[in-house]
Amino acid sequence: MQEVLYLHGFASSSRSEKALLTQAFFKQHPSIRLRALDLPYTPDEAMAALEHALDAPPHAIIGSSLGGFLATVLAERLGCRACLINPAVAPHKVLANYVGEYHHPVLQQRYQVQPAHMQQLEHLMPTQLRDPSRYLVLLQTGDEVLDYRQAVQYYHGAQIQVIPGGDHSFVGFEHYLPQIAEFCLHT
C-alpha cells in the first residue's frame, strides 16, 4: 500500500475543507493510505512530529500553504514527490507579521507565534531544490496572503500551474484532486 501525507497550512488542521476533500477523494483509491496529520505550531516540533510519524518515506506529500513549505522540506530530505497548493516560500518573512497569541477554533487550542519560530523556519528552508521534477505546484494569482510569483521563481523547473484569480484557500480545489492524485501516484 502506498502512503500519501497531507500537510495543512498555518492555523489549519486535518479537519480543514481541503483536508476533508482530499481524504474523501483518496478513499476511492483503496491501494493508497492517505494520512492527514495535525501538526504542532512550532516549526521544529512540526518537523519532529513528521519524522516520528513516518515508518518509511511516503510515496508523496500534499501540502497547502505552510504545509507546502513543510512538504518541500520533507520531500527534499526523503527524496519523494510533493504536490503543493499555494505553498509558502520563505515563510519566516510572511509569518513575522503574525507574531502573537492566537486561538485555533477547530482544535480549541491556544498557540503563540514567536520570533524564534522565524529563525526555525529560515533554518529549515532548502536553498534550492535537488530535483524540481518531483514537484507539482498549483498556484492561484488571487492569493491574498502569498505572492504566487515567489513560488514560480523558487520552484523553477517543477510542474507549475498558475490559475488566474482564486484566493489563498485555492478556489475550486476539489476539481484538481484527480490531477493531484495522478501526480502523487506516478512512479
Explain this structure to me?
This protein has helices at 17-26, 43-53, 66-78, 91-94, 115-124, 148-154, 177-185; strands spanning 2-7, 32-37, 60-64, 81-85, 100-104, 109-113, 135-140, 159-163. With 187 residues, the chain is of the alpha/beta class. The mean pLDDT is 92. The chain has one domain (2-185): Rossmann fold (3-Layer(aba) Sandwich), CATH 3.40.50.1820. The chain contains 7 helices and 8 strands; from the N terminus they run E-H-E-H-E-H-E-H-E-E-H-E-H-E-H. The strands form 2 sheets. It has a 6-stranded parallel β-sheet with strand order 2-1-3-4-7-8, with helices on both faces. InterPro entries: AB_hydrolase_fold (IPR029058), UPF0227/Esterase_YqiA (IPR008886). This is Esterase.
Structure keywords:
187 residues; alpha/beta; Rossmann fold; six-stranded parallel sheet; two-stranded antiparallel ribbon; 7 helices; 8 strands
Give a count of the beta strands, DSSP E runs of length 2 or more. Answer: 8
- Average pLDDT metric: 92
Q: In the CATH scheme, what's the topology name?
A: Rossmann fold
Order of helices and strands: EHEHEHEHEEHEHEH
Biggest sheet strand line-up: 2-1-3-4-7-8
Low confidence ranges:
none
Individual helix count: 7
Strand content: 15-25%
- How many independent structural domains? 1
* CATH homology superfamily name: Alpha/Beta hydrolase fold, catalytic domain
Assign the CATH class.
Alpha Beta
Looking at the overall shape, the CATH architecture is 3-Layer(aba) Sandwich
- Rounded Rg: 15 Å
Q: Mind summarizing the main beta sheet?
A: 6 strands, parallel
Termini separation comes to 13 Å
Q: Helical content, roughly?
A: 25-40%
- Summing up helix and strand content along with how strands pair, one would put the structural category as alpha/beta
Q: Can you tell me the overall shape?
A: globular
